[in-house]
Amino acid sequence: MFFPPREIVERVKKEYPSGTRVALVSMNDPYRDLPEGLKGTVDGVDDTGTIHVDWDNGSHLGVVYGEDSCRKLDSVTVTCYGSTETWDSRKEAMEFYLRAMAGSEGSEHERYNKIYTELSLGMPTATDEE
User: Fold this and answer.
1) In the chain, at which end, N or C, are there fewer CB atoms within 10 A of the end residue's CB?
2) How far apart are CA 46 and CA 44, in angstroms?
3) What are phi and psi for residue 18, nearest 5 degrees?
4) If 0-12 CB within 10 Å is exposed, 13-18 middle and 19+ buried, where does residue 116 land?
């Protein structure tokens, strides 16, 4: 079995901290049939560089360094009207709040505008609160 050098393992740990949202690109496991694009949340990275993921379908299979691959999602957390939601795509969140701005006016428009602006600035969280 291949074990990556310590520098690579440390880089993987830094790039995929616990809580990071990922999508499966490929998995070389004949005993599991996880579909490409399946999303999940990183639980941690071990000393072999395996990214342990809690997949949205309930599976807890790790992404093995050098065998499997996943990609980080551009996740963002939005709080609006006191409700918090995590989006797996900043682009989709921005499109949603842009449409919401177009269909609203007054204080509601201002709430959506604040969120849209924070998303546009690349902030990891956006809120309608002052």
Assistant:
1) C
2) 7
3) -50, 135
4) buried
- pLDDT for position 31: 82
Kind plus residue range of the DSSP H or E element containing 116: helix 106-120
User: What's the confidence (pLDDT) of residue 95?
Assistant: 98
For residue 61, which amino acid is it?
L
Q: Is the pLDDT of residue 1 over 80?
A: no
Cα-flanking dihedrals φ and ψ of residue 111, to 5°?
-60, -50
- For 6-72, CATH gives 2.30.30.40
Which residues, in sequence order, are CB contacts of 118 under 8 Å at separation 6+? Answer: 125, 126, 127
Q: Where in the chain is the domain with CATH 2.30.30.40?
A: 6-72
Checking if the pLDDT of 97 tops 90, the result is: yes
Would you tell me how many other CB atoms lie within 10 Å of the CB of residue 87?
Answer: 20
The model's pTM is 0.80
Only one residue has tokens 């428009």, namely 109
The rounded distance, in Å, linking the Cα atoms of 32 and 68 is 12
Phi–psi pair at 47, nearest 5 degrees: -75, 0
